[in-house]
């Protein structure tokens, strides 16, 4: 049992460090790279991946029935899609 706990702790620590690295990367991209649709797509893609990591590793959804994983992934896709649509619609609304 102790080996299982150590493995889970190592996995959680690795995922946490990965989340920190992705957060730092998206911050640096948003700060220093010229803004554009490709950058928004990259940042949203990384954000989706980060959300998936949180859902699977820290919320424990990977141990639930598959329907709950589908619901949570659909939630991420819907939120990301709404943000993308808002970004794409912004220039149309302002003019």
From TrEMBL:
Q: Which InterPro entries match?
A: Cyt_c_oxidase_su4_prok (IPR005171)
Q: Which UniProt keywords apply?
A: Cell membrane, Membrane, Transmembrane, Transmembrane helix
Q: Sorted alphabetically, which Pfam families does this protein's record hold?
A: COX4_pro
Localisation: Cell membrane
Keyword Transmembrane applies: yes
| Membrane spanning residue stretches | 12-29, 35-55, 67-90
Superkingdom to which the source organism belongs: Bacteria
One annotated Gene Ontology cellular component of this protein: plasma membrane
| Membrane topology reported for the UniProt record | Multi-pass membrane protein
Name the record gives this protein: Cytochrome C oxidase subunit IV
């Amino acid at each position: 049992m102790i080996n299982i706990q150590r493995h889970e702790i190592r996995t959680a620590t690795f995922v946490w460090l990965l989340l920190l690295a992705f957060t730092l990367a998206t911050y640096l991209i948003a700060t220093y790279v010229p803004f554009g649709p490709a950058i928004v797509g990259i940042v949203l893609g990384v954000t989706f991946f980060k959300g998936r990591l949180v859902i699977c590793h820290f919320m424990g959804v990977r141990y639930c029935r598959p329907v709950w994983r589908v619901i949570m992934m659909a939630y991420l896709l819907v939120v990301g899609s709404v943000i993308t649509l808002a970004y794409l619609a912004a220039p149309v609304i302002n003019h």
